From TrEMBL:
The modification N6-(pyridoxal phosphate)lysine is found at residue 223. Homodimer. Pathway: Amino-acid biosynthesis; L-histidine biosynthesis; L-histidine from 5-phospho-alpha-D-ribose 1-diphosphate: step 7/9. Belongs to the class-II pyridoxal-phosphate-dependent aminotransferase family. Histidinol-phosphate aminotransferase subfamily. The gene is hisC_2. This is Histidinol-phosphate aminotransferase. NCBIfam families: hisC. Residues 34-355 form the Aminotransferase class I/classII large domain. One of its GO terms (molecular function) is transaminase activity. Its cofactor is pyridoxal 5'-phosphate. It comes from Amylibacter marinus.
Length: 366
């Protein structure tokens, strides 16, 4: 009998039900010009100021990071015009999602999200021992009425990503306000605003956090700020929630280089604007060209598009054709979208390569 079959060491109930998170694939070895468009990373990388701030920390690596993240929180507070004491930083926003589930949901509790919701909601609910509950979307758009209908006396947390991943769709603030007003006061609404920067004039739900005692907004440096590799995220939350999360957080959960780079990144508004302009240009191009090729695609509010094929088999064949040409994109079968492929908006040349490969693909099938 193998060692693992005799072990008496067992995890908490539910842990072995968790399906491993599968991230975006990395570029294939040996394929020329391979490019990763599978994890919604900024194809232009972080601002020069952020890279310099990161390098400058190389001379101070023996020293523990700031435990209160004061400088980074001040920079965030300044840009978003919110109080620094209501901000908490995490090792990616994933860590904050995990803190929220562990703090507010347990065995017998329900964590609510939509049918194509971000994978970490389910995983973190399961880690906490809670029951993940999915409600339908309305043609790939968050359906506030379905969320309200899904609330039971056991619902403790509702997660809404807006813009949503992997659909790229968006509901406006008035819909979120309607949701916040409708939920029971003992139920927490978490607005995951990982892609909020891409929506002009959208505050990511910050004003709802200010207005309600039970609304939290999470943000990340992994997407438009181009720092996915460093793992920095943050939340804006009511004081009572901050007091809870502060107790769960490891004192040094964000490292020195990440803190310095994130502070520089959020302060470089000029670079942010440039990235947003490029993204708008090439996301429009992808949506228009995909539709022209007969591949359905909703308008996107983020830095990726969701291409809808006639069938799962077609989507898989298109994924293979793109991979053979060095274009690595994301299959989204695990998001209940097996006939779709999620494509990160890359540099212009790479978006053109995507369309060129898919044009040949469609012609070969016609
Ligand atoms: C990418 C993403 C995040 C960010 O995760 P980090 O841990 O901050 O890298 C959070 N929510 C959604 C919906 C995302 O797509």
């Amino acid at each position: 009998m193998s060692k693992s079959m005799t072990t008496k060491i067992t995890p908490q109930p539910g842990i072995l039900d968790i399906e491993l998170y599968v991230g975006g694939k990395a570029p294939a070895q040996g394929v020329a010009n391979s490019v990763k468009l599978s994890s919604n990373e900024n194809p232009h990388g972080p601002s020069k100021a952020a890279r310099e701030a990161y390098r400058a920390q190389a001379d101070f690596l023996a020293v523990y990071p700031s435990s209160d993240h004061g400088a980074l929180r001040a920079a965030i507070a300044d840009v978003h015009d919110i109080p620094a004491e209501n901000i908490i930083c995490g090792n990616g926003s994933d860590e904050i999602i995990s803190f929220l589930c562990n703090a507010y949901a347990g065995i017998g509790d329900e964590v609510l999200f939509t049918e194509h919701g971000f994978a970490m909601y389910r995983i973190c609910a399961q880690i906490a021992g809670a029951t993940p509950v999915e409600v339908p979307e309305n043609n790939r758009v968050t359906d506030v009425d379905a969320l309200i209908a899904g609330i039971t006396e056991n619902t403790k947390i509702i997660f809404v990503a807006n813009p949503n991943n992997p659909t790229g769709t968006f509901v406006d603030s008035s819909e979120l306000a309607r949701l916040a007003a409708a939920i029971p006061q003992q139920c927490l609404l978490v607005l995951d605003s990982a892609y909020a920067e891409y929506v002009e004039g959208y505050d990511g739900g910050a004003s709802l956090v200010t207005a309600f005692d039970n609304v939290v907004m999470t943000r990340t440096f992994s997407k438009v700020y181009g720092l996915g590799g460093l793992r920095v995220g943050w939340a804006y939350a009511p004081q009572a929630v901050i007091d809870v999360l502060a107790r769960m957080r490891g004192p040094f959960n964000v490292n020195v280089a990440a803190l310095a780079a994130a502070e520089a990144a959020i302060s470089d508004r000029e670079y942010l604007d440039k990235c947003l302009i490029e993204n708008k240009k090439w996301s429009n191009y992808l949506v228009t060209e995909l539709n022209a090729l007969g591949i359905q695609c909703d308008p996107t509010f983020a830095n990726f598009v969701l291409a809808r094929f006639a069938s799962e088999e077609e989507a898989n064949a298109a994924e293979r054709a793109l991979a053979e040409n060095g274009l690595i994109i994301r299959k989204v079968g695990s998001y209940n979208l097996p006939q779709c492929l999620r494509i990160t908006v890359g540099k212009g040349v790479d978006c053109q390569r995507i369309i060129s490969v898919l044009r040949q693909f469609q012609e070969a099938r016609a």
